[in-house]
Specification:
four-stranded antiparallel sheet; about 0% helix; about 120 residues; seven-stranded mixed sheet
């Protein structure tokens, strides 16, 4: 079983930046896609940014131009750079790794991001 550990969340003022990290406990094989999701109180979990095994990325319309997803395969780590943060970005952020042919679906424990003045 692979464990995903997120870090980098916290309290930031509007307009500020944070960088989230998602470290896997070991190298993961046969990845279909990786992504960052978030869930705000009273709302459903939503995909924020995704990256396929081939490196193609996609973003929710609400974060396009502000967030960037990336990965470092050598470190078994995925990142989410968040710039120009807004109060509506406040949520618990989760990282996710999906295997090919639905072979696995790993989730991190979540990290809180709060954007407030």
């Amino acid at each position: 079983q692979v464990q995903l550990v997120e870090s980098g969340g916290g309290l930031v003022q509007p307009g500020g930046s944070l960088r989230l990290s998602c470290a896997a406990s070991r190298r993961i094989f046969n990845i279909h896609a990786m992504g960052w999701y978030r869930q705000a109180p009273g709302k459903q979990r939503e995909l924020v940014a995704g990256i396929t095994n081939s490196g193609n990325t996609n973003y929710a319309d609400s974060v396009k131009g502000r967030f960037t997803i990336s990965r470092d395969n050598a470190k078994n780590t995925m990142y989410l750079q968040m710039n120009s943060l807004k109060p509506e970005d406040t949520a618990v952020y989760y990282c996710n790794v999906q295997g090919r042919l639905n072979s696995y679906d790993y989730w991190g424990q979540g990290t809180q991001v709060t954007v407030s003045s």
